[in-house]
Here is the input.
Amino acid sequence: MALGKCKECGRECAKTAKVCPGCGVANPVKGSTSALVLGLVFVGLAITWIVVTSNSKPSSAIASNPVAAAAANPIGAVAEVGLSGIYKKVCDDAVEQYGIAKRNGTPIDACAHAGMVAAAYLQAKDEPSYAQWKKTEKADCAKAGTPAP
Ligand SMILES: [Zn+2]
Here is the structure.
């Protein structure tokens, strides 16, 4: 938990604290820390997602796969690959998995994976692709007889 000094009493308190535990002043730590905290949470989620999804891959893929390398060494690899590179890889992987599900799985699989692709593009903030995949999800889910979430 990141700590900061209260602007009123100087006591150390969490930057996310709504009120100072010492003097009770509202928003005791100045600055746009909420955006920073959100950013860190976001990075953490991205790394968690990558670690979880890459655990199913053989470790020999690490050398040639920047995302697997990111899982092996999250902090260094994030700096090396860059977040946009990771998002792109996440999106590419999701699209690839959708293709496999579409070819081999049930319509419900295709529906679920289209939703995952849409979620990946949402994380990457790729609005046109997100909108496109939401349409795909809706169509696939309609075929599966399952309403899109
Ligand atoms: Zn205070």
User: Anything to note?
Assistant: Residues 82-149 form one domain. The two ends are 34 Å apart (CA to CA). The pocket of zinc ion is lined by residues 6, 8-9, 11, 20, 22-23, 25, 28 (CB under 6 Å).
